[in-house]
Amino acid sequence: MVRKYLPDKQYFINKPIPGLEGYKIIEYIGSGCNAHVFKAHSKNANNSLACKIIPKENLLGKENNPPLWRQEIDKANILKSTIVVKFIHVTEFVDQTNGIDCMVLCSEFVNGETIDKYINSHRNDIPIAFCELFLKGILSLIYDMEKSKVKHGDLHAKNIIVEDRSDQLGGPPFTFRVTDFGVAGATSDSAFKEDYDQLATVLKTLLENVDYQLAVSRDKFVFNYLNDKFLGHILEKDISRDPLARRTKDLWDCLDKIDTEFIKYGRATGRANLVTPFDYLSCEQLGEAHSLLKALYSDLFLGLPEIESRNNLVLTGPRGCGKSTVFKSLSLRHRIMTGEDQPEKINYIGIYYRCLDLYSAFSRYSRPDREEAYNVPMHYINATLISEVLETVEMWAMQRYKEEFFKKESLISNALWDLFELEKSNTPGIDTFKAICFKLQKERKRAAEKQRFINAHTEKIGFYFPPHILIRVCEILMSNLSFLANKPFYFFIDDYSMPKITSDLQNNLNRLFMQRSAWSFFKLSTESPVSYVRGDIDGKSYVEGREFELLNLGVVYLTADAEKRLHFIEDVFSRRFCAVENYSVKTLEELIGDYKSPSENEIALAIRNNEKPEMWGKQNLCELCSGDIFYIISLVGKMVSRAAGDKALSDILSSPKIDKNIQRDTIRSEAGNFLNSLRGIENGEHLVEVVTAFGNVAYSYLKFRQSKNEKSNPPHLASRIEPYEELKLTDPAQKVYNELLRYSIFIEDPRGKSIRGKVVPRLYLRRSLVPHFKLTFSKRDSIGLEPIEIEQLLLEPKKFEKEQTMTNEERKEDKEQMKFDKLLGETN
What is the structure's pLDDT at 48? Predict the structure, then answer.
């Protein structure tokens, strides 16, 4: 960038600081776009200061009173944190003769170097302890800023200093100091950057420079925790999806308890058990605890045959439905780590990749102006997946096929170098998988760094991998290694969801992920059917049933045989109970009982009489599941807590051990808590209004309308919406519709068929919300709606509720009967 209005820096050397007796500028430090930085020193005070000299033309808001730039600077001094380098003195520096008209900002001089310089001088040699101290320091600052309602706005690696304290006894040999607090806002009209986003960028760079292979077991655990989990907490903004998302104090506490977590992790991995059956409610929390993952994974997982089929697949379903668990469990790396890699058990080579890594490198990706830049993210993902393929194949070969691998490694490596068209050094051992992986790690970094300058037309792009490279690697490996013959590669790409993986980035990478070949198949998990783009950057559309299959685990659970669902859920809990040493319960039935509910019609009649239906036992728990199995595990954990906790279970002699009233109350309260969590997200209040409007209308149908599907005219039992026609929503309504699916408030079954014979998506209410709205689990009836009525529900839910709620039974039933008869007439 062009430096504006900056005077000759040599002019200031040996000049006194106005208003600070005895301080003289003695050394030039550096310059930015808007200011010079110097070191000033006082011999009498034996003290040094940092001086930022800014031409007044570069200051913003001079017309304000007080000036905007002064307000920004004063923010630093509001904070109590000792990390902030505070301003000591602000004054003018005017010399009309020499054309000098500047402001001088003085702060304490910090003896150290910036994080940016530190990283450059410690490439691949940064200890994990450094990363931990860095995070604790910056989080303590952010916590102080949040309390004072202040933001830094420019928290990059050049504004964080590693202060040398090696000359002091006690304490760490260094600490972190943050400078330029608010000065970006004083001298630039660019928008402030999110502090957490910039923290994630610095942390990711630090982790990239840790030598993981040389780390001890504790440091490896911390590295994995920071890289696989903590980065996600920092990057995530939605607390309904991640309770720790940007919760500063909670994140600091997590770091403070890291050693305790390491001990728990070691016990879990070493003995494959849990502290309680309700620990580790997401696959990400398990980290590299492969033995524990094996102990908890149920091979009764619904939808498993479709996932393992030889097709490209888009897997979706509610958060917590086990997508990550099944993907990671099917990877060859996991099977090797758990001793389940016997050749006769391996029908494909599973490669697991979580897209948090991709998001960190290409967050907010947009389509570049230049076509030659399209392959930059493609290069990154190819380098990443090829590296994982080579590491996994070598790991398996060294366990099972060492002799053949040693014979063919050099030949295959040579072929790969030729394929990659990358510079190949003459270093001994270059024709090995390890050397190629080392090069590919550098290529990942090169692509990520190039992305920062992708729209600078003066920047040369150069060569980057095209889409087909990964598939060619698979072909070379399968053609040259006998133990890979007829074993295609399955790439399990986890959390491939908008908005994190932007639509432009998906359009780009779909050129690879939608390719069909005999060598490889791609399995993409996404949080909802509307979180995936069905096309690519070349304008090609991908058709379900041809390029890929779509599997919605929410629909799988809703439509699966009740006995299969129950067997799966019982197996999940049995595995968790057995994984806890000496746990007093071994089966789900023992804990919550076996209650066979009356018919859905009888339950509805009881609701009509204002009676509270029974809501306990393993069958009802199974009905509450919309595929969100981890919600069900958490729900039972809450029941145990209300029943006096895990330790007290052995003292409870009644059967079931958890009282049915505790079960019922927990089920209802947790449904309410889910709705309350939605209120904390963007547009969450409106989503709650939509689902509440539908729930109340469905309840009024149960109360006042009879079902037309049965001769006995039982109550109308609807917990789903059935459009009469294909939906063609306006953009605002479509946005709400997508959000309802994204958060699994409704589960979309695209295989529905309306009374008019149209193929329409049916929308099932999330099953855990059924008791909250006093409905039943019956799937017999629907609330049929015209597209205009669905539009009204999405945009004007209160008006929809007022118009659709049944209050006068006779009048409304006549109206509904007329509507129903009319529709029947149209179809005849």
Answer: 94
